[in-house]
Amino acid sequence: MTERLDKIVADTENCTRSQARTLIRRGEVAVGGQTVRDIARKTDPASEEISVSGRILAAGRCYIMMNKPVGVISATESAGERTVLDLLPPRLKRRGLFPAGRLDKDTTGFMLITDDGPFAHEILSPRRHVEKEYEALLEHPANAADIEAFACGIRLGDGTECAPAVLELDDARTTARIVIREGKYHQVRRMFEAVGNRVAALRRLRIGGLYLDDTLAPGAARLMTPEEVSQIRRGSIP
Ligand code: URA
């Protein structure tokens, strides 16, 4: 979407329109590497690189991997509570970003943040079958009957039917790996409740064919490479 340059700079830099115009007139703003002094110049931040004092504000679509910590909301805003967007370092902040899908406040792990609506829709739509893999710590040991129930499709407490899911257990049967291809509200927690268990901690490890970068500390985020974006699109581990 094309917009006036002074509006884009004001929105992205969180300054007033008049401060944005001063920056543009001073020659601090470049579009596609060229200094632009025309405050009314129209441009599309999704397709052109815009920089202020050499710092890039926008350059095409943006795909960020975050290791979401406990206690943070996966929304663009939340009254009085910290969101995943609040955790982004200034160099990654830009207009139009949103978390692609929800993780509960107490769920940790792979959070994808983007400004690409169609891509988010593609990976979240149950019809696209993009896998999401979680690790859950369980209050009680799970068993073979639970594995079978997950494979057949769990019916949640409110009657909602879940598609077949993979459940794998460690030797103690209290750490589980779950692979689902949809994203119903509190799905993994409610699936375990449906078989009489409880999730004590939940972490998302993978979206599609891409695992969370385990060098990212809780709360840290980085841009994804184009190859990583296509690994997500692949939907599952080959
Ligand atoms: N399932 C849940 O129950 N919670 C999440 O955050 C993600 C999947």
Secondary-structure topology with pairs:
Blueprint: E1 3-4, H1 5-13, H2 17-25, E2 29-31, E3 34-35, E4 42-43, E5 50-52, E6 55-58, E7 63-68, E8 98-99, E9 107-114, H3 117-124, E10 132-138, H4 144-152, E11 166-169, E12 175-180, H5 187-194, E13 199-207, E14 210-211, E15 221-223, H6 226-233
Parallel strand pairs: 9-13
Antiparallel strand pairs: 1-4, 2-3, 2-5, 5-6, 7-9, 7-15, 8-9, 10-12, 10-13, 11-12, 13-14
Bound molecules: uracil.
Structure characteristics:
four-stranded antiparallel sheet; elongated; binds uracil; nine-stranded mixed sheet; 6 helices; 238 residues; alpha+beta
**Helix content bin:** 10-25%
What is the number of helices? 6
Number of strands: 15
Radius of gyration: 21 Å
Can you summarize the main beta sheet?
Answer: 9 strands, mixed
Uncertain ranges: none
Which shape, going by the Cα principal axes? elongated
Order of helices and strands: EHHEEEEEEEEHEHEEHEEEH
Distance between the termini: 36 Å
Residue fraction in strands = 25-35%
Question: How would you state the average pLDDT, rounded?
Answer: 91
Structural class: alpha+beta
Distinct ligand kinds: uracil
Report what the structure shows.
- α1 (5-13) packs across α2.
- The chain has helices at residues 5-13, 17-25, 117-124, 144-152, 187-194, 226-233, and strands at residues 3-4, 29-31, 34-35, 42-43, 50-52, 55-58, 63-68, 98-99, 107-114, 132-138, 166-169, 175-180, 199-207, 210-211, 221-223.
- Strands 7, 8, 9, 10, 11, 12, 13, 14 and 15 form a nine-stranded mixed sheet that branches.
- Helix content is 21%, strand content 26%.
- It starts with a strand and ends in a 5-residue tail after the last helix.
- The mean pLDDT is 91.
- The chain is of the alpha+beta class and 238 residues long.
- It has six helices and 15 strands.
- The structure holds uracil.
- The site of uracil has 8 residues, from α5.
